[in-house]
Automatic annotation (TrEMBL):
Annotated family: Belongs to the YqgF HJR family.
PANTHER family in alphabetical order: POLYNUCLEOTIDYL TRANSFERASE, RIBONUCLEASE H-LIKE SUPERFAMILY PROTEIN
Keyword Zinc-finger recorded: no
Identification of the protein by name: Putative pre-16S rRNA nuclease
Function (record text): Could be a nuclease involved in processing of the 5'-end of pre-16S rRNA.
Pfam family, one: RuvX
Residue ranges of every copy of the YqgF/RNase H-like domain listed in the record: 2-100
Length: 137
């Protein structure tokens, strides 16, 4: 059964999460360098059945675009061209980093494991974006 993959785009790192085959649970997958994203997605989609890609759409609290919004819109356009057979969805990602940090604290993650430089926060944020998408379906 095909999975759904979520992308939390960052300027340096990008967090990825994926559903289980039944599309019930979202799990953190990987954190990669943003420059490697398209190559990673092409390789991943070649070996795994993926039916949809979900992008976290960053906005300000008032709903206005922030500095990352145009980058995400551009990535969506690139994904539409690279994967025309897949659904590409945008999901509001406000508060996902804060929720990811709270989740990691609640799970008992050590402070050094929560540090952004490890990339754990990025992939947990992607999982929260993906779980939000699943809840909307």
């Amino acid at each position: 059964m095909p999975r759904v993959l979520a992308i939390d785009l960052g300027t340096k790192r990008t967090g990825l999460a994926v559903t289980d085959p039944l599309k019930i649970l979202a799990s953190p997958l990987e954190t990669i360098e943003t420059g490697q994203l398209m190559a990673f997605l092409k390789a991943y989609c070649a070996k795994e059945e993926v039916e949809a890609l979900v992008l976290g759409l960053p906005t300000r609290l008032n709903g206005q675009d922030n500095e990352m919004t145009p980058r995400v819109i551009k990535l969506k356009e690139e994904l539409d061209k690279a994967f025309p057979e897949k659904k590409i969805a945008l999901v509001d990602e406000r508060f996902t980093s804060k929720m990811a940090m709270q989740s990691m604290i609640a799970m008992g993650s050590k402070k050094k494991d929560r540090r952004e430089k490890t990339g754990n926060l990025d992939k947990v944020s992607a999982a929260i974006i993906l779980q939000s998408y699943l809840a909307q379906q």
